Queue: 4 jobs
Job 1
Amino acid sequence: MGVNGGVIGGTLAWLGDLLFGGGRNVVRETAEVFRENAEGAAERGLTLRMGALDQFAAEFAPPQRGRFDRVMDGVNRLPRPALALGTLGLFVSAMVDPVWFAARMQGVALVPEPLWWLLGVVVSFYFGARHQRKAQEFQRDIAATMARAPQAVAQIAALEAMRGQGAETVGTADPGPDAEGVRDAVRPEANPALEAWRAAR
């Protein structure tokens, strides 16, 4: 019994070393030939998802701009409000101090005409570019609205068809092409009590 137990124990130990020795697991490795390792698949899926999220984060992250770019963006936003507020300021100054305002307008009257033309060109190009961009955005919005127009027309037609079913035909059976059946379905039934009440009035 002792010798047999030792042989069996040694055989089992040898078999265990063969299957699981050296950090290996032959059963698991053999099973993975036929079926994917769920834990490994989860790790690979996590790596794939994290890579996709990192890519999206890098793609949609706001660009890191320097101080010069931020200052230029601020300067580009100044002309429109400066012109609007400056014009309102001229009206206020004309009411507060008319003499001061008249003196400044005399200075403006001395500006040569070519300089006025140059100013007109600069302002036209500046505001013209903005107007062009806004006009294109407006056209895109109109095109998107027009693309939805057939759906709206179909819905309105369906609502009008529902309205076309008058109150007198609600709840009546469809008699088909029989005209007398239509007349009988729509015409109210005789009510002797109601007729007697009407006659008594």
Note: The mean pLDDT is 78.
Job 2
Amino acid sequence: GFTVVENEENELIPTRLVTGWRVCIDYQKLNEATRKDPFPLPFMDQMLERLVGNEYYCFLDGFSGYFQIPIDPRDQEKTMFTCPYGTFAYRCMPFGLCNAPGTFRRCMLAIFHDMVEKTMEVFMDDFSVFGNSFENCLSRLDEMLQRAKVDVIAKLPNPTSVKDCIKDFQTLKKELTEAPILISLNWDLPFELMCNASDFAIGAVLGKRHEKHFKPIHYASKTMTDAESNYTTTEKEMLAVVKNP
């Protein structure tokens, strides 16, 4: 992603964030031996024709989108590469594989099948939500994010460290993804932010009061860094307020 910083002359300069190593592997030989997936990708000109005429647009980047798709354990060794630090193989789908774009689009259409071409578009790992008014575009964006969030929660794997909690974990997933747990935005009502912190993580729930009952809109959580885990209890609680929104 990009952030805007101020230079010595008080000018705002867009700067790319450095978040760590980005590995680029040459998979040409692997792609030559791979049976191609004929799943069709959208044509740019057709997509632009559907987008034109709308007054408002919202563009989102599928951050690490490809890396959210696991590779079959039997095929992981095919992605193996070597570097000065050792020999590694991907457990999730990286960029550079010939069938990666088609696989990702197939997954996105499975999630947003009734929304693509009507309220949003997906091109590679970029998402475009459109509308003929600000409220219309915002409503469609909210619907898209709710769909993505519910799908992610529903597909969370069972915990492996404590076998006795699997039933409770499934119950929690069911309660978090079924209506009317998650509600859409209503700008006429005040927001409420509930935060909490443990020794190793922070969490928050954004919601609103409806008929005296709290209705969540969005959940957020984050694992603390080693330095943050040394904060006092009060500092951890404040960290949850600052970091989660």
Note: The first helix runs from residue 28 to 33.
Job 3
Amino acid sequence: EEKRRQYDQFGDNMFGGQNFSDFARSRRTSEDLDDILSSIFGRGGFSQRFSQNSQGFSGFNFSNFAPENLDITAILNVSVLDTLLGNKKQVSINNETFSLKIPIGVEEGEKIRVRNKGKTGRTGRGDLLLQIHIEEDEMYRREKDDIIQIFDLPLKTALFGGKIEIATWHKTLTLTIPPNTKAMQKFRIKDKGIKNRKTSHVGDLYLQARLILPKVETLSNELKALLEKEL
């Protein structure tokens, strides 16, 4: 211990002015280097002393400098009408509820970023990423920028033609139905679809007929007999 303290204090001067290599050569040849180092630094020699002094680096925790991912991703279910009209939706996450306006024309799978609604960490607060899922609807569906709307068409009007009023997503229309209209036949209303957010292209509205059959028990016997004969 005393020799180690002296070397720490005086360095090579403790060898009488010689550097360590000259001093080692001046010792008797039967004494190897490890014995010399052991006499100075103790059992284990210089390598053990260096190993002990370098442990601080291996024990250092670099994870504190790793970037934090504070963003949260969630699914937001919306209706076709929400994407047409830009309706507001109530969103609840992390015990927090807020109102969010749905962008008109937003598409399936698109992500909406809501700032400062993510997790809180040492570097601040992350964002909330809401992935849009457009739910199936009995009356409406989207095909890119086009809207398909189902409307009920009485059998009589389908057979003989006529006019029918239809409440669409933007206003009520009067549609002229030709005779012999078939089930699921489409009628195109130009430029009444959805406006594409990226290209500004406006799609079309397609009104698709769903035939409504009369209840057989409401028909007269004469009409039922005629239908059975003619159909």
Note: The longest strand covers residues 146-154.
Job 4
Amino acid sequence: MTADGRPQAPLMTNTQADRVKEVARLAGRPSRLRRREFLAEGPQAVREALRLHLERRDDDGGGVVVEAYATVEALERHPDVAELFGRDGAPSLRRTTPDVLAAMASTVTPQGFVAVCRFVDTPLEDVLATKPRLVAVLVEVRDPGNAGTIIRAADSAGADAVILTGASVDPYNPKTVRSTVGSLFHLPLVIGAELDGLTDRLREAGMTVLAADGYGAVSLDDLQDASAARRFGAGSEGLVLQEP
């Protein structure tokens, strides 16, 4: 029996099972787009996905996590994550052998947890309607690790949202998800925003537009103003940001 009294499903041991293959296919973009689902891997990402899942269940009955998988060893090492699975409204959890989890995961050395999650992106209109004060915009950022790092930094800085323009990397790419270290589940994410007109829309929402440039003459510390709403734009690794 599980912590909440539900019957516990048998341990998954077959690495060739159809369900294992279906989960593993989410490492590829076509399957992600078709199903509008992606993988969260490791204790930190799965923990944050579960927390958001439970919050949304409380708010509107919806959920983020479709299903989750974990090894017995990982559940013992991370009792805080195991406790979340025992709460009312938590998604189903299947215990697996390490080999089965490795067959599902996109990493060479998985950390014992995999969750299948629904897309969490938000329409731009919904973000602007909340009157955000700090937004990070990724302009054609194509490296998954860099995109994830910016999302994580925006989360740490207290940003109200992250916007990715149309040519930017897929934020549901497993490498991007891993590099966010759970921050993907902390703040609204807008995907595929059209760059043309975006600056005007942000200014109309009352935001000051700034562009991040490693060779810029003004530091962010010099621009601190608690009364101003900000939008920071970060360009791709080989892109020169255009004058807004």
Note: DSSP finds ten helices and nine strands in the chain.
